[in-house]
Design a protein that fits this description.
Blueprint (H helix, E strand, L loop, with lengths): L1 H8 L6 H28 L3 H43 L6
Helix pairs in contact: 2-3
Length: about 100
Amino acid sequence: MKEFIHKHIQTLPNDLNTLLKDDYTKEVKEYNRSMNNVLKQGFGLDSEELYEFLLDSETTINTFCGQELKSLFNNIINQKLLSKFNEGFKRDDKG
């Protein structure tokens, strides 16, 4: 089991964390930029209120992304393990 998991993890790109971090940072910056305008112009928030709102939002986004990554990796591993189990132990038409 351990070897199977490690084998598949090693096929992931070496820079996966950089790719994810770069895309995450880009999305959060875009979100902050668009929310900045809405909150200042639409709701009249001052700088401190704006900072607190965006900080809370980023914390929530970060938590969600971490949970989603864990869930995704767990699902992928479970699917691969089930597939491997089915390959090895389920009977075909030859018995």
